[in-house]
Amino acid sequence: MPADLVLLSARLLDPGTGGLLAHTALAAQDGRISFLGDDREARTLAGPGTTVVDLRGAVVTAGFTDGHLHPVSGAERTMGVDLSGCRDLGAVRAALADAVKSLRPGAWLRGWGLDPNAFGGERVGSAALGPVLDGVPALIDLFDAHSALASARALELSGVDGPRTFDQGSEIVCDADGRPTGLLLEDAACELVEAVAPRPTEGEVRARTAEVLRTMAAAGLTGGHAMDAGGDSLAVHAALEAEDALPLRLRVAPWVRPEADDEAVAALTRLQGTGGARWRVDGAKLFMDGTIDNGTAWLEVPDCHGESGHAFWPDPQCYTEVITALHRAGVPTATHAIGDAAVRHVLDSVEKAQAEHPAPVRHRVEHIETVPDDTVTRFARLGVAASMQPTHCCEFTRADHTDNWSRRLGEERAGRAFRCRDLWEAGARVVLGSDWPIAPFPPLQVMAGARHRRPADLSLPPHGPEQALTPLQALRGITLNAAWAAGEEDVAGRLAVGHRADLTVLAGNPLDVPDTELADVPVVLTVVGGRPTYRAAGV
User: Fold this and answer.
1) Were 448 and a residue from 363, 421, 518, 534 both cysteine, which residue would form a disulfide, CB within 3.0 to 4.6 Å?
2) Which residues pair with 535 in a beta bridge?
3) CA torsion, points 467, 473, 474, 478, in degrees to nearest 10?
4) 516 near 450, Cβ under 8 Å?
5) 3-class secondary-structure state, position 25
6) Does residue 504 contact residue 224 with C-beta atoms inside 8 Å?
7) By C-alpha distance, which of 63, 434, 27, 436 is closest to 217?
8) Percent of the chain at pLDDT above 90?
9) What is the tens place of the pLDDT at every residue in 422-442?
10) Over residues 251-256, mean pLDDT
């Protein structure tokens, strides 16, 4: 039977062996790599319906998988005003003023990507934005998606006029007189305003998601670990696949919130394995804390403002019980844990579950922004993957520690930031991702950040250069280790016969390109299951 895809005149880079294979051609059939060899023999495998591509020396490697992203919720979130490029309050106010001009009377304004560093020394709150939002109902997501700024009119329409108590670590930030400042911390608080703000239609969300996924495929992504299933996300995946418009292979982990009861956990367990050909529910996402920038992380010692001293779960023992229940049911978990206390508690909980129910369930910790040495060494021993987003360090923190994140932590804790290399050398499986829309998703930019630890525009010196990964480590972090975290290392993450034909093709060898040039290497071709999902012009 003829092959479905034949790639000729290629350089084949296998993340597993860490070098170029002694072959120039690859063929795929029924979604798997079926042949590795020379061009002459590969040509004999082509039939009338075979897609044959002469790559003229381009480099083929295992498909890039983003280890942490939010494709559907991110698509909806980024339909508002993009504030991610605003470096100071003047730029923020100007961007919002331009957006307000185009609003019809009474319409809501949505924004995203607001960096708290833009506020300089001012307190983060709607008052700092000045009169630009007077009378305008507005809800603006801060860059971390764990907090939002609501205008006075938005608070009024939502009935938010003072502090409230929540079943999770959320807060309506108020001034000394009990009046809301507009800053809403974590989901439960943000949802009070989101509930009354207009939402895009199902069709608009689906169209926007399709657009985002096409752009991701063009950037070289063949897959992603989707860390939420809120709203109609699963229906969106199904609808896009039915329309042949799902160019990435998605592994979805729905959330488990602190207020979830036993039936909710059981329902999530029953949901495991459902999905389609290119997407499936596989795992659960939990939160042990919030973010350092907001003062909602869980640190062993509170930050310089006396904040970040509590877990997201009001009773951390309840989290431990949920982890045990999911582990016993064979459900892999991914827990957001940024602060040292949060990471420690997650590892304690996994260790307890493993001791009570020995089973080969692969758990992971997301973000791991500041941890001491004794925590670093536990990941490998427990078999817990370290899911890291190096562009968080590159784009939102600074080597001189003048950023909000570093100032809150102080020199000692800011000095142990995003310890990718230490975790790797301690034997942990380090998985790389973007956390899009928190940071940009192009995988080459993610890999470059892991290697040079600088912002994408290279305008600042590296933050913690001793934590930089090598070129091969960065490649494995977005291929082989992502496959391992999903329990798919026998079928994905390598160039080998029998493995999935999920491929990323680049104009240059990512192991040879300088760190500062990697993000600009052209993507030539992206393939999922033996089918091209992106082809550059002229290919």
Assistant:
1) 518
2) 525
3) -130
4) no
5) strand
6) no
7) 63
8) 95
9) 999 999 999 999 999 999 999
10) 97
Whose tokens are 């509930």? That residue is 195
Strands (E), 175-236: 180-185, 221-226
Q: Per residue in 323-345, pLDDT tens? A: 999 999 999 999 999 999 999 99
355: region left, alpha or beta (phi > 0 left; psi from -120 to 50 alpha):
alpha
> The tokens of 426 are what?
């301690």
Q: Edge-to-edge, what's the strand order for the sheet holding 109-114?
A: 81-82, 109-114, 138-142, 147-150, 180-185, 171-174
Structure tokens at 321: 């019980």
Instruction: Write out pLDDT tens, residues 6-50.
Output: 999 999 999 999 999 999 999 999 999 999 999 999 999 999 999
Name the pTM for this structure: 0.95
Q: How many residues are given for the chain?
A: 539
> Given the structure tokens 């993000």, which residue do they identify?
519
Q: Is 21 exposed, middle or buried (0-12, 13-18, 19+ CB in 10 A)?
A: middle
Minimum mean pLDDT among 162-171, 196-205, 251-260, 484-493: which range? 162-171
pLDDT score recorded for residue 145: 87
Q: What are phi and psi of 162, to 5 degrees?
A: 180, -175
Asked if pLDDT for residue 121 goes beyond 80, the answer is: no
Residue 98 and residue 474: Cα distance in Å, rounded?
40
160 and 139 Cβ atoms separated by less than 8 Å: no
Q: Which residues pair with 287 in a beta bridge?
A: 336
Residue 62: name the closest of 512, 361, 526, 495 by CA.
495
> Cα separations (Å) of 385 from 58, 358, 431?
32, 17, 7
| Block residue for tokens 């969300």 | 205
Strand partners, 81: 111
Instruction: Tell me the CA distances in angstroms from 411 to 168, 242, 408, 462, one per residue in order.
Output: 30, 52, 9, 16
pLDDT for position 180: 95
What does the alpha-carbon distance between residue 335 and residue 364 come to, in Å, rounded to a whole number? 7
- Running DSSP on this structure, what letter comes out for residue 136? -
Which residues on neighbouring strands pair with residue 280, listed in sequence order?
Answer: 251, 275
